[in-house]
Each structure stands twice: as structure tokens, then as C-alpha cells.
Automatic annotation (TrEMBL):
It comes from the Bacteria. This is DUF2294 domain-containing protein. The lineage of its organism: Bacteria, Bacillati, Bacillota, Bacilli, Bacillales. It comes from Neobacillus citreus. InterPro entries: MpsC (IPR018745). Residues 5-113 form the Na+-translocating membrane potential-generating system MpsC domain. It holds the Pfam family MpsC.
Length: 121
């Protein structure tokens, strides 16, 4: 039996939370995953620590936090690629991410080789 779209989304959310905790040493407060055609869009809330919010009060600190946090996630891209492949069965074509230093929210977009919303033939 094939997994439903909702089951795949939940599995990705759970796997990325586990990855954050093991790779980054800290997980987000909440994770929401949505599949849209050939993209997996993940929104992670509660990423920044109180100290990081304090650093973000000026432009230099803000840029430092964005650069450091994005670098950490980018350095784990191979593991993320494997996680997404193991759950979806699709190759990763590209990966995009950014973090909001105002809301502490990270958005990840995984562009896949196939359409996950396509009806099975």
C-alpha cells in the first residue's frame, strides 16, 4: 500500500526534527511540511535561541546569525538529501533555505525529480 500525501509530509517533519536534534544539537519548536507538485516545503518554527535574537538587534549580528545558521544547514545537505530520498523515493534536484531573524522561522524547499502529487498510473 502506498503512503498518503499526509503520511509522507508527517514522516518528513519527524525525520527533519530528528536530523536537527542530532546534527545541529537542537530542534525547532514545530515543523510543518507540505508537498506541492515536485516540491517539499518545510517550515520550522522556533529555530533561534534567545541569545541569537539578541544578536539580531543590529545588522552585523543579523547577518552573522543568518550566515552561520545557513552554513550549518548547507553543510548537512547530503544527509538531508538522503532523508528526502528515503521517504519520497525521488532524487533531490535542488535545495533552498533561509531563516527569518525576526520570527525565528526557517523555510526549506526541496525540489525533486518527480511530481509527488501526480496520481499513480
Amino acid at each position: 500500500m502506498e503512503k498518503s500525501k499526509g503520511a509522507i509530509e508527517a514522516e518528513i517533519s519527524k525525520a527533519l526534527t530528528q536530523w536537527e536534534k542530532s546534527y545541529l544539537g537542537r530542534g525547532s519548536l514545530s515543523v510543518k511540511t507540505d508537498i506541492l507538485r515536485d516540491m517539499v516545503i518545510v517550515v520550522l518554527n522556533g529555530i533561534l535561541t534567545p541569545a541569537e535574537y539578541a544578536l539580531c538587534r543590529d545588522k552585523e549580528g543579523l547577518l552573522s546569525i543568518k550566515t552561520t545558521r545557513n552554513g550549518l544547514v548547507e553543510s548537512g545537505q547530503e544527509e538531508l538529501k538522503q532523508i528526502i530520498f528515503s521517504i519520497t523515493g525521488q532524487e533531490l534536484i535542488s535545495f533552498h533555505t533561509d531563516i527569518s531573524t525576526q520570527t525565528g522561522e526557517r523555510v526549506m524547499v526541496f525540489k525533486l525529480s518527480g511530481n509527488l502529487e501526480k496520481e499513480p498510473s
